């Protein structure tokens, strides 16, 4: 078999493996280079998402939620349980078994679709060649008509909090604690910090989240973010905003963290510290000096709206390029690029990418926030509806949160949907579908939603946009 491919993909995360599968499905001879290895030293696929990201974090979130629910929420339903124990090792083993199934599953999918898996570290050379260096040091060079770079991202490290084995860890380390830390510090109140903080808080840790910015969840719709802060604080997360970590000192088995806030310099001592201050594009040893692929000022691979790099025939997708660092954004770009390479028309709609924070309740959004439309000077309307007035939310025992719909005033077209509530991550797709089809709030309002469901809050929020909500007094006058 020759070593020339129609497409060589570098990285088998949700961007890369999806791109490779799609390219192969479209009849292109495709190889996928992946350097990742699992705990047993075997090749692993699925990137950050399946190995140390989306999936393992959700496994721990689900287990810890069930534990917390059993302890705190069952009694009200008449279910009396006593002596509830958490076996952390079993929880971690369960998480590992899911990771193993899914990562092997991706390997199987690549094979079933006829993608050649090349194990090793890929480097883009000039002339659309890729050098693959295997673990044993052996090197092969493959040629490609097209290259798709999907090398992903890695956690950001900050000088005031260098990682220290077992004490100061990043998100990957926080998925592996063998016991529940007594006092847990989390630097960064972003998506990952709140999710991992929630896991260990539910299991009994005393969690403090130190967030440098003065605004909680600054890029989330602030009506939702404010409600979320209240609920999460009530659950026991000590969220300190405007608290910038400036130093750490390891003293025996403890970490003393220094931070500055409005009151000046503060110190707090923790048994473990998680650094969750964001992720950066991963381009180490990826590009030869003469390959022509350029980076932007923030270190991402520069691409245009169609994920084309500065070199014709070389594309880049996922976390290593601009845009939200989300698995589904990476996958969507992967499919789009494979379609383009195969000669089909394809385009990404960057305006309609949902995002979910898997706290309890979940926080999900798609499209623009109220702050964004305001800043753009768009004339808009909003319709909100609280889960407090939803029967199904009461039967489920979670009435926290709301649905908020933002529309363009003149056309009633939906510009954004924001949900905090149980299953918000599932419900948000009603907004995704509506926005993709250019729906108005009235379109949603005229649809028949099943009763009793949480989704009725979406229906009611759509009705509320012009003052027609049925199950609560309307804030605005009926038109
Ligand atoms: P990655 O998944 O990072 O994959 C890149 C792959 O490329 C890796 O396997 C790497 O080994 C390989 N690679 C890199 N360089 C080379 C090279 N030179 N040669 C060969 N192989 C190489 N996103 C969501 O959408 N939902 C979530 O709930 C969510 N939760 C998360 C929770 C955590 C704790 C973390 C850390 C992330 C989470 N994310 C979530 C983000 C999500 O994991 C990423 O956005 C996604 O994995 C990006 O996909 P990717 O394909 O671009 O890169
Ligand atoms: P995200 O980008 O969503 O993963 O969130 C990372 C968060 O970490 C951001 O909200 C940052 O403001 C925050 N952050 C970054 N550096 C520090 C620091 N030194 N102390 C506290 N928070 C920080």
Low-confidence residue ranges: none
Strand tally is: 22
- What is the alpha-carbon Rg in Å? 24 Å
Given helix and strand content, the structural type is alpha/beta
Ions and ligands: flavin-adenine dinucleotide, adenosine monophosphate
Total discrete domains: 3
CATH topology of the largest domain: the name is FAD/NAD(P)-binding domain
**H/I helix tally:** 13
Strand composition percent: 25-35%
How would you sum up this structure, described in words?
30% of the residues lie in helices and 25% in strands. The protein is α/β, with parallel strands linked by helices and 479 residues long. It has three domains: 4-155 and 280-341, FAD/NAD(P)-binding domain (3-Layer(bba) Sandwich); 168-277, FAD/NAD(P)-binding domain (3-Layer(bba) Sandwich); 355-465, FAD/NAD-linked reductase, C-terminal dimerisation domain (Enolase-like, domain 1), CATH 3.30.390. Strands 1, 2, 3, 4, 5, 6 and 17 form a seven-stranded mixed β-sheet that branches. The longest helix is centred in the N-terminal third of the chain and has 25 residues, at 88-112. The N and C termini lie far apart (70 Å). The model has no long low-confidence stretch (mean pLDDT 97). The chain binds flavin-adenine dinucleotide and adenosine monophosphate (AMP). Residues 10-16, 33-36, 47-49, 52-54, 57, 121-122, 150-153, 171, 192, 282, 286, 318-319, 325-328, 330, 358 line the site of flavin-adenine dinucleotide.
């Amino acid at each position: 078999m020759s070593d020339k491919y129609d497409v060589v993909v570098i990285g088998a995360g949700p961007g890369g493996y999806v791109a490779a599968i799609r390219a192969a499905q479209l009849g292109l001879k495709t190889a996928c280079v992946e350097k990742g290895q699992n705990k047993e030293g075997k090749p692993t696929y699925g990137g950050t998402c399946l190995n140390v990201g989306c999936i393992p974090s959700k496994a721990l979130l689900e287990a810890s939620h069930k534990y917390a629910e059993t302890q705190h929420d069952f009694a009200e339903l008449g279910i009396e349980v006593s002596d509830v124990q958490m076996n952390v090792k079993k929880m971690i083993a369960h998480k590992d078994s899911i990771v193993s199934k899914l990562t092997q599953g991706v390997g199987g999918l690549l094979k079933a679709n006829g993608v050649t898996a090349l194990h090793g570290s890929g480097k883009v050379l000039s002339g659309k060649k890729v050098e693959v260096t295997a673990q044993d040091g052996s090197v092969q060079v493959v040629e490609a008509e097209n290259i798709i770079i999907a090398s992903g991202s890695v956690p950001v490290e900050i000088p005031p909090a260098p990682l220290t084995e077992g004490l100061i860890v990043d998100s990957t380390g926080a998925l592996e604690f063998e016991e529940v830390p007594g006092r847990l510090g989390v630097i960064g109140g972003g998506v990952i910090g709140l999710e991992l903080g929630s896991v260990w808080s539910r299991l009994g840790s005393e969690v403090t989240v130190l967030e440098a910015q003065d605004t909680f969840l600054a890029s989330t719709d602030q009506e939702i973010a404010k409600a979320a802060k209240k609920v999460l604080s009530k659950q026991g997360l000590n969220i300190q905003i405007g608290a910038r970590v400036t130093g750490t000192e390891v003293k025996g088995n403890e970490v003393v963290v220094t931070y500055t806030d409005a009151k000046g310099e503060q110190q707090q001592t923790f048994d473990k510290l998680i650094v969750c201050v964001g992720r950066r594009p991963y381009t180490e040893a990826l590009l030869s000096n003469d390959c022509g692929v350029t980076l932007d000022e923030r270190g991402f691979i520069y691409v245009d709206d169609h994920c084309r790099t500065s070199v014709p025939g070389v594309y880049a997708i996922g976390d290593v390029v601009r845009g939200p660092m989300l698995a589904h954004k990476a996958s969507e770009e992967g499919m789009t690029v494979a379609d383009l390479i195969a000669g089909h028309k394809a385009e990404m709609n960057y305006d309609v990418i949902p995002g979910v924070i898997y706290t309890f309740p979940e926080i999900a959004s798609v499209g623009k926030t109220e702050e964004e439309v305001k800043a753009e000077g768009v004339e808009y309307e909003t319709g909100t509806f609280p889960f407090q007035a939803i029967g199904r939310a009461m039967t489920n025992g979670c009435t926290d949160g709301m649905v908020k719909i933002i529309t363009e005033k003149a056309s009633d077209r939906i510009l954004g949907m924001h949900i905090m509530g149980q299953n918000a991550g599932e419900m948000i797709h009603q907004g995704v579908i509506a926005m993709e089809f250019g729906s108005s709030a009235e379109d949603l309002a005229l649809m028949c939603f099943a009763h009793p469901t949480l989704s009725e809050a979406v229906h009611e929020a759509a009705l509320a946009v012009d003052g027609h909500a049925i199950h609560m007094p309307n804030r605005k006058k009926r038109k």
